[in-house]
Each structure stands twice: as C-alpha cells, then as structure tokens.
Amino acid sequence: MSRCFYVTFDEEVDFSGWDISKIKKIVQDAFQNGTVVDAVSIENGYGARFSCRGESIRGVEVCQMAADEIEVRLPVLSNYADYYLGSMLVAFFYKIEGAAVCDEDDNAFDVVHYFSYDNISKMIGEDAKTFLAFLSSSEKFPIEIPAIKRSMFFGAEAKAELTRLAGYPDVLAERLLQMTKDRQYWLPDYPLPHKVLICPKGVKNPERKDMKKVLYVREGGDYILQDYDYLLLRGKSGKEGPVVITKEDLREILPRSWRFYDEYVAIAPKLPITEWRYFVREAAEFHHAELLG
After folding, report:
1. Residue among 141, 137, 134 at smallest CA distance from 176
2. 128 Cβ contact partners less than 8 Å away, ≥ 6 residues apart
3. Can you tell me the distance from the alpha carbon of 96 to that of 10, in angstroms, rounded to the nearest whole number?
4. How many CA atoms lie within 13 A of 89 on its CB side?
5. Contact 256, 279 (CB under 8 A)
6. CA–CA distance, 228 with 216 (Å, rounded to integer)
7. Is residue 98 predicted with pLDDT exceeding 60?
8. What is the pLDDT of residues 160-177, one digit of tens each?
C-alpha cells in the first residue's frame, strides 16, 4: 500500500555511492522554514529513507529501480509533511538529468501542480479509504504499520471507529492523520523494552508461529509497552521476579500511574520502588510458569 512516483533519466546514472547527506541538505534548504530532514540508507546503498524530524509519519523511500530510473515511494498513511518531502525529492532528482516524471500508472505530470495542497489532500483522502478497506477486510489483528518513531498497531477498536466515519471521507482522513500523529508524537518519548522470542515449555519442533513475544520490563525504567504476548518483570536486585504476565493480566493490576493508550499500547512511567514491589507481588498471582523452561 504505497503511492509511487518515478523519475527517468536520459542516460544511466550510478547512485550506488550517492551522498545522502548532500541530498538531505539540498532538500532541507528547499523547505525554507527551518524543517530538519533526516535520512538513513536502505537496500545496500541503492536507496534511502527520508523524513521530516518531528513531523513525518511514514517517511519517504527513494530507491534506484534501474540504471536510468529512481522510484520515490510514499507508504499509505503518509501525512502532509511526507507528501511535501516526497515532492521535493521528486523535483531534486528530476533537476539532475531527469527526462520525465510519472506516477505508478505511467502518467506524466508537472511536479509543482501535482503536489499542490488540494491534490495532496485528495491523495491523503484516497489513502484513508484504501487503509480502511484493508483494515475492514483483515481477519487477524493487530495490523502493524511501521513508522518513523515506532510501529503503529490497529485492531478491532480502530476498525470500529473508522468504519463509523466511512461516509464522511474528509472526517475519516482527518481522524487517521490525528491517530497516526498521536501514536508518533503525542505518546511520551519512552523507549521500548528489550524484546525476545521464547518458545513455551513443552512445545516440540517449534515453528516461528509457536514463539511468543516477551518484553523484559525492569524496575526503574520508563517504557512504552506494545507488540507483545507476555511481560517479564524483574527487579534490579533480582529479588522481585521473574514474573510473567499477559496483557489481560496487566489490565487487572495496572499501576495507578500507568495507562493504556489504546487496545495495544500502554504508557508505563517509572514506578517508585515500593509501588514496583507491590506491582510485582500482585503480578505473581497471575504468573505464567508454563512459558519458562
């Protein structure tokens, strides 16, 4: 689920050793409003992911598809910052030695007019409908959408809320923009705990589907809890734990300062030592010893 644009060249161009920092600086200067552009290499040096710091949701991927062609890819749920960044990247590569710019249906277009505010709004609206259709047809949740700061997870609750807005396309698009922004920038900037895959005790010849995702939550840390089957709780001294609980167990004994942002994400600030010990003692009542060997 991406929207792709292609810049073709009159002759072969070798981007295998391209200077990403130089491209980033030129595009950043083009914004003329203080926007900071970040970039990281992908795909063995034949591509990069660009993003607007503090603004982008999905970022923009640029890849060399052929010796004379560059692809600029905007994943579904890209926001205005992503689209404006994408337009500047298309314009940058076209100015090098570009012969033509076209969309994924091979329709040529003028960059300035194509990426107008009105047309970007239209594309974001179409993206919202595409995503809702995908969400509605899915039978297994959560759906994970990679993003700039952290992955985003959508499930039955999001599906129900967005489905109610299906008849109001502008409202649907705006709500999705807000949901994705909140998941990236409203949540506190806490780290994700260390995650390991564990095969439950007694499972013979395990496959990947048998493995369980376990987050290692230690005393004294601030965390965002998401994408897990179990939490493994352990104190600094080792005296508390290990205790293993599920998300459903956590809802039963959630500390007062912790809260669920949605059905898949919990905000877990550092607990005072006495509260941590009380939490672990309560968690011990739910301990899933069957997970550990």
Report:
1. 134
2. 169, 172, 173, 176
3. 10
4. 31
5. no
6. 10
7. yes
8. 999 999 999 999 999 999
